[in-house]
Amino acid sequence: MTSEALKNYKFIIPSCLTLDEQSEFADLVLPDAIYLEKLETLPNKLNWSHTGQTGYFYWGIRQPIVKPVRESRDWGDVLVELADRMGFLGDVCQSMNKHFNLKDAYRLDPSQKYTLEEINDRKLKSKFGDNKGLEWFKNNGFMSLKRKVDEMYPFIGAS
């Protein structure tokens, strides 16, 4: 039962869009910004559900159109701030380098604090090159890449 499992935690702090049954067990609730209030790079991550009909991959960003309401913040900003204050931001930077597979020129320096915009700019440039950073995507919205045949039909030949 969820309620019994949550009792095992000493302190619970969720980042929530809405209050729900699990947040009722929280000691502190941090209001998360909704998708209209925050930047997200590559929101349509490639997965098996994307159709191969167009013959292209589409990469884009989601840009904020309104400011966050009251005290809500993007959970990524909160995590970076907490990691910095608690002294393990360097470990978080190293983890992001690995998770985002950042190329050497764009790797995060563990001794430096970055904004989410800076991190996202590095993610995009690492994936698409120097001339396709966050500013390029803000101005252009998305880019498309021609798919190879095996990328359009990944399950053909799979057993």
Task: Please describe the topology of this protein.
Blueprint: H1 2-6, E1 15-16, E2 30-31, E3 40-41, E4 56-62, H2 75-86, H3 89-99, H4 116-128, H5 134-140, E5 142-146, H6 149-152
Parallel strand pairs: 1-2
Antiparallel strand pairs: 3-4, 4-5
Give an account of the 3D structure.
The chain has two domains: 31 residues, no CATH class; 120 residues, no CATH class. The strands form two sheets. Strands 3-4-5 form a three-stranded antiparallel beta sheet. The chain has a two-stranded parallel sheet with strand order 1-2. The mean pLDDT is 88. The termini are far apart. Helices cover 33% and strands 11% of the residues. It is an alpha+beta fold and 159 residues long. The chain is built from six helices and five strands. The chain is globular.
Give the oligomer, counting copies of the same chain as homo and different chains as hetero: single chain
Largest sheet, spatial ordering of strands = 3-4-5
Instruction: Specify the biggest β-sheet.
Output: 3 strands, antiparallel
As for the number of domains, it is 2
Give me the Rg, rounded. 19 Å
SS elements, strand count: 5
Number of helices: 6
Give the rounded overall mean pLDDT: 88
Low-confidence stretches: none
- Please estimate the helix content: 25-40%
**Could you tell me the strand content as a percent range?**
5-15%
Q: Give the end-to-end Cα distance, rounded to a whole number of Å.
A: 38 Å
**What is the N-to-C succession of helices and strands?**
HEEEEHHHHEH
Structural class: alpha+beta
The rough form would be described as globular
